[in-house]
Design a protein that fits this description.
By secondary structure, the chain is of the alpha+beta class. Helix content is 37%, strand content 22%.
């Protein structure tokens, strides 16, 4: 019977700047409580090009590590099979930017559909004070005098 493999837990430990890239350092803790160091490099010029804010980069890089960890779990591989140094690629940034645009568009559509319906335009009969439809009731407001 095989040993079950759990997903590694990651903690951001800091970052450095290296030639226009921000290199985020993480520490991975496996089920055996062993600590393994990882880095994820993100090109700052590319992140600006695709509208990714600097504050979002650590979580996005963390997601890359977690995805690699999940893949290792699915393959029943050892945590040591996860690459120690990774790069947040331009393709991944494009995918993220496209997802953000789609999310914003869905939110706009949801807001538009939840707004109250505009009142319908009055027909000529409703607008004409001399038409039969606009006649004053015999006893307005329930008055009996």
């Amino acid at each position: 019977m095989g040993k079950s493999v759990q997903q590694m837990q990651f903690t951001l430990t800091g970052f450095t700047q290296d030639a226009g890239c921000r290199v985020f350092a993480y520490e991975g803790i496996g089920e055996d409580r062993a600590r393994i160091k990882f880095t994820v490099r993100a090109d700052l010029a590319l992140s600006r090009k695709y509208g990714i804010r600097l504050q979002e980069l650590p979580l996005m890089c963390l997601a890359i590590l977690e995805r690699c960890s999940e893949d290792a779990v699915l393959e029943a591989a050892d945590a040591l099979s996860i690459p120690r140094a990774m790069t947040f690629t331009e393709e991944a940034m494009i995918r993220y930017a496209d997802e953000c645009v789609a999310t914003k568009e869905a939110a706009v559509l949801k807001r538009m559909s939840s707004k109250r319906q505009q009142p319908k335009a009055a027909t000529e009969e409703e607008f004409n004070p001399y038409s039969q439809a606009a006649a004053v009731p015999a006893k307005p407001y329930g008055q009996s005098w």
